[in-house]
């Protein structure tokens, strides 16, 4: 798998790409894409980084796996391509934005518009086999994306991390809480949201309040 990734990320992650685990991971992914239908498309595997350079990152949202249905995954967590029906978690994200900020429910579920404002939409695992959720877990992606979180924590300050659900909350251990801001809540999936763990978290307005205090431009959610 050729490493084509945005230049500032290439600089900061250069040592990671040279490690034995990443070389094994690259070979695994290359083989999977040759033998099976996998998502996202190869050119979109590092899309989260390509749309949100290291130097411009202000907010980090952590997902787990790419969508594994046809035409859904575009390399950004929770995001789908233009014209694709919004998955349940994304619907609940947009509903919370609507009540939190007053912004109308959007037609497009493509979150590139967030990424280009400095929101890193990072899945812990960056690839998946079609219709097989979790099929590329524990192959090295988590080691890589943990290193990304640690690099951001170490090299930057005043970031806002939005950790939704038990899996994402565990990533708080990688973040320097003295330098950064962490907001946690339940996951936006229907199972969690319908139990009252998602709606009303006001993460979008709260993130913007923090960014403003940090002297950064708020996100147009």
UniProtKB/TrEMBL annotation:
The active site is at 65 (proton acceptor). The keyword Secreted does not apply. It is found in: Cytoplasm. Its EC number is 3.2.2.27. PANTHER family: URACIL-DNA GLYCOSYLASE (PTHR11264). The gene is ung. GO terms for cellular component: cytoplasm. It catalyses: Hydrolyzes single-stranded DNA or mismatched double-stranded DNA and polynucleotides, releasing free uracil. It comes from the Bacteria. One of its GO terms (biological process) is base-excision repair, AP site formation via deaminated base removal. CDD domains: UDG-F1-like. This is Uracil-DNA glycosylase. Excises uracil residues from the DNA which can arise as a result of misincorporation of dUMP residues by DNA polymerase or due to deamination of cytosine. Its main location: cytoplasm. The keyword Heme does not apply. Pfam families: UDG (PF03167). GO terms for molecular function: uracil DNA N-glycosylase activity. Residues 50-211 form the Uracil-DNA glycosylase-like domain. SUPFAM superfamilies: Uracil-DNA glycosylase-like (SSF52141). Belongs to the uracil-DNA glycosylase (UDG) superfamily. UNG family. Keywords: Cytoplasm, DNA damage, DNA repair, Glycosidase, Hydrolase.
